[in-house]
Design goal:
Elements (H helix, E strand, L loop, with lengths): L3 E7 L2 H12 L4 E2 L11 E8 L2 H10 L6 E7 L5 H6 L2 E6 L5 H12 L7 H17 L14 H11 L4 H8 L3 H14 L5 H10 L4
Parallel strand pairs: 1-2, 1-3, 3-4, 4-5
Protein name: Helix-turn-helix transcriptional regulator
Keywords: DNA-binding, Transcription, Transcription regulation
Length: 207
């Protein structure tokens, strides 16, 4: 299995160690020698706030045109438009980040390498707004016996007959992300497969 090289940066050593520890538990990722950005495919950056200084630093680093997953403690006053133009493909509130959410964001980032087009920027801004709403509280503020907005959208599309590729295109996700969302639903509710998950979601009034 080819491993994705992920470089990690953080403003404090505890955050750095935590992010590295989370990513190292997944065999599909590895840190490049010396944790160097110029040898990575994705960057993960943890900061207290998305300040102008932070954004300027990202823009300077973007000579390598790497997608950036950013973990931010305080999203108030953040400028997502500028951040996206400097390569940020996901902004995650630190208080809500789990290993699963971080891994999901890094996986999605792998599919966005290269200089973003206008459509890429628009899609990334849409993802930022969605993540900001859904991750503002742990578990998106939703009980485990309900679907969060992302899961609900995917399950509705499955119920409408769309396949993984079509859902990924419409929601600007990677196909792997869609599969992970469906897997998360089937696992959490103890379901056997996709048809069982769709039938359960309809009968239980989840979609």
């Amino acid at each position: 299995m080819r491993k994705v090289k992920v470089a990690v940066r953080a403003e404090d050593p505890l955050s750095l160690a935590g992010l590295i520890g989370q990513l190292e538990t997944w065999p599909e990722f590895e840190l490049p020698p010396g944790n160097r950005w110029d040898r990575a495919e994705v960057m993960v950056v943890a900061v207290t706030a998305l300040t102008r200084e932070v954004v300027d630093g990202l823009c300077r680093a973007q000579a390598t045109a790497l997608p950036v997953v950013m973990v931010v403690a305080d999203l108030d006053g953040a400028d997502p438009q500028t951040a996206v133009e400097c390569g940020v493909v996901a902004l995650l509130p630190r208080s809500a980040v789990t290993t699963e959410l971080l891994v999901d964001a890094v996986r999605s980032a792998v599919d966005t390498r290269g200089t973003p087009s206008a459509n890429d920027v628009e899609a990334a801004l849409w993802r930022f707004e969605r993540l900001h709403r859904e991750l503002a509280l742990p578990d998106g503020g939703f009980p485990r016996d309900r679907l969060n907005p992302r899961e609900e959208r995917v399950m509705r599309m499955l119920a409408d007959g769309l396949d993984t590729t079509e859902i990924a295109e419409q929601l600007a996700y990677s196909e792997r992300t869609v599969k992970n969302i469906v897997h998360g639903v089937t696992t959490r509710f103890g379901l056997r497969n996709r048809p069982h998950a769709i039938a359960y979601a309809v009968r239980a009034g989840l979609i």
